[in-house]
Amino acid sequence: MLNLDKSDLRLFLLVAAALVLAPFILNPFPEGSNLAQFNAGYPDLMQRLVIFGIFAIGFNILFGLTGYLSFGHAAFLGVGSYAAIWMMKLLTMNVIPAIVVSIIVAGIFAALVGFISLRRSGIYFSILTLAFAQMSYSLAYSVLTPITGGETGLQPKINDPRILDAPLLDGATPTAGLFGIDMRASWQLSVGDWLFTFNFGYYFAAVVMLIAFYVSMRIFRSPFGMMLRAVKTNQNRLNYTGVNTRPYTLTAFIISGMYAGLAGGLLVAMDTQVGADRMFWTASGEVVLMTILGGAGTLIGPVLGAGFIKYMENVVSKINETVLHQWFYWLPDGLEDFVVSVIYPFVGKGWHLTLGLMFMAVVIFLPGGLMEGLRRLTQGRKKKADEKTGGAVATPAE
Amino acid sequence: MGILEVQNVNKRFGGLQALRDVNLSIAQGSLHAIIGPNGAGKSTLLNCFVGRLIPDTGSVTFDGSSLIGLKPHEINQAGVTRVFQTPEIFGDLSLLENVMIPAFAKRDGAYKPSMWSPLQGEREIREQAEEALASVNLADKRHQTANSQSRGNKRRLELAMGLVQKPKLLLLDEPTAGMARADTNATIDLLKEISATGITMVVIEHDMHVVFSLAQKITVLAQGSPIVEDLPENIKGNPKVQEAYLGGAHL
């Protein structure tokens, strides 16, 4: 089915099921309980999880397969976002043209950047891509203000031309939608103390991610994917084998740029706004972290990494001192203050510290990322089943 | 006129004249060995054939067209395949994939991004690769990764990667170095079989046993220039060769 082999098909169906059931899976705690803030099943976060999943899937096609580490992929995300917002300003608030154009524009920009950057490999390639991204960021803030809106960014306004849409009534705000269905439309299901939200925008993004994931699977399992893996292992030898490696790497670069553009377009489809900070180098670094954390070169690892980081960013960062005191109210006063002051630097605004420590632990103990952890877990269990003595079972530092 | 014509090739690295007025003609279909003491310029010469080095002067003509200035992949696409001395393989890939890559390059040219067809559907390429692996006795290891192999197996994998392309000219840089004696003999037999199919071969080799069991013609290189080119039986007794190559000892 779908031209995938058995284990790939299983993975694909698993991802599809997880995406459909995400509003339940991400909302395990009842409303109003102490743990409710660990719930991630609200539309805004779920949208981000899948959109950055797409970004990481695309980045993985370049970095995971060819080993070329781009430090400028946020530029393509940003360019895609700007393209999408202009489609919303000029054409229609329907998200389809916005997303299609964001992919195309990001692809063209990636072709330009890749053509130049791929003349070098290793650290020089990384620096070139970083330079391009920072140039784009600076330009968006300064010279290109008429196109990018500079510091204020861009939003669809009521008096934009939007030649395909009927004019809006006075006082109405333009909202993004798909053939009349509002991206923000949500339906809520309440079961006992639990509240589950089903958001149209999320499901739209989830379908797009599923398609994007399927395409990346096909690329991974194709002769093209094998050539890219050969580039990673021994690019020089590949040339002597009669393969011209430059166009292969450029194609991979453009594809991953298009994925980034798609993610940028989807971000705009969800929140209909864009600012230049989307292209800042930390955003480029973030997708590198996501991919490595999840497992570069694995199919689903980058999505896990993206989900993990976005979850941390949105959930751990919300834990503040008051919340900590609530958790540890049962401790004697002095001890309570002590525990809270120890944990405090790692949560709230300090969530980057937790992330950094986890990243270090993963890189040191699980060079293959979270996926390697999962693999070791399942293999360890198999081993245990085989020989009941147990023996040396690797315990991942998760 | 041979299939590979080398005329007046000079190559200098700083103060070292690595190649000095090399003239060489490799006849179509022959199995030609290039021997010489360490530092004689054998590998430098080979590197000039495949585009890794560009000669300072002179010409290298293959099948009527110049190879000078062509990129490595263009030279391969023209029909010249090189088997490396130190195994240059794709370590993370399986043996089968290692051999499928040159097979793809041969069939599809230097660039064909077939992203949508599953690798498993490529029966024809797979069969070619399996056949090449079987010819070097690696068929049963085809799903193992290349890095996990012994040095001897890596050498044989290198050979399979060259053979699968069925090139017009196969350049072999010490094809049996690092192999056990039994494997060496098997490789000699294999190379003889391939030579019989009409593929032109140039072999660089240290092992005299290999050279004299294989070569139809031998060129002796010393200090960057060819000093003798002759049939193997005449090389053995040539005093110039013994002087340059063996310091006067008898073969």
Q: Can you tell me the CATH superfamily of the domain at 1-76 and 202-251 in chain B?
A: P-loop containing nucleotide triphosphate hydrolases
Indicate the CATH topology of the domain at 1-76 and 202-251 in chain B.
Answer: Rossmann fold
Largest sheet of chain B: 6 strands, mixed
Rg of chain A (CA only): 23 Å
Mean pLDDT of chain A: 89
Structural class by sheet pairing and helices of chain A: mainly alpha
- Please tally the β strands of chain A and state the result: 4
What proportion strand of chain A?
under 5%
- Along the chain, the helix and strand elements of chain B come as EEEHEEHEHHHEHEHEEHH
Taking the alpha carbons of the first and last residues of chain B, their distance comes to 32 Å
The largest contact between protein chains, plus residue counts on each side, is: A-B, 30 and 39 residues
Count of DSSP strands of chain B: 10
Q: Could you estimate the helical fraction of the residues of chain A in percent?
A: 55-70%
Query: Strand count, sense and closure of the main sheet of chain A?
Result: 2 strands, antiparallel
The helical percent of chain B reads 25-40%
Helix tally of chain B equals 9
The CATH architecture designation of the domain at 1-76 and 202-251 in chain B is: 3-Layer(aba) Sandwich
CATH topology of chain A: ABC transporter involved in vitamin B12 uptake, BtuC
Low-pLDDT residue intervals, each spanning 5 or more residues of chain A: 389-398
Shape of chain A: globular
